[in-house]
Predict the 3D structure of the following.
Amino acid sequence: MVESGIFFIILKRKCIDMPNLIGTYDCKADAKGRLTMPSGLRKQLAPILSEGFVLRRSVFQKCLELYPMKEWDLLMNDIKKLNRFQKKPDDFVRRFMAGARLVDLDNTGRLLVPKDLKAFANISKNVVLTSAISFIEIWDKEAYEIIINDAIEDFSDLAEEVMGNLDSDE
């Protein structure tokens, strides 16, 4: 298990050029694993669509994360700071990068999800794409609904714990 301190280094940085993505979208995957990027997301990503994306496994959930290249580069700058001559950071980097792929939207706005990543997230026909501020999570619809509905009762406590002590001066 990776120490929380390693992941904290990555999460505490601020992204400057990346738009804050908004929305949750239902879509369908075809038999080859292609998803059509919803027009609402394509509009938000329009300025950076041609730069490509990185698709990878989520650290905490059975879903995928789609990073615009600018956001991925910022994340990699933080990861490069880890000492690869220590076991935990080295293990973290290996696991974090496992399965990561460069991907692009095709001419019709579709994204091909590789078979191994599709299997990891149990993606079938019905898919949810949801914003995670600066990247997009890709979920099997059933799994997404389970995790969202399971969290309803605990969300107020979680919100208070995570957001309740934020310093508004930052």
In short: The domain at 18-161 is CATH 3.40.1550.20 (Chemotaxis protein chec). DSSP finds six helices and eight strands in the chain.
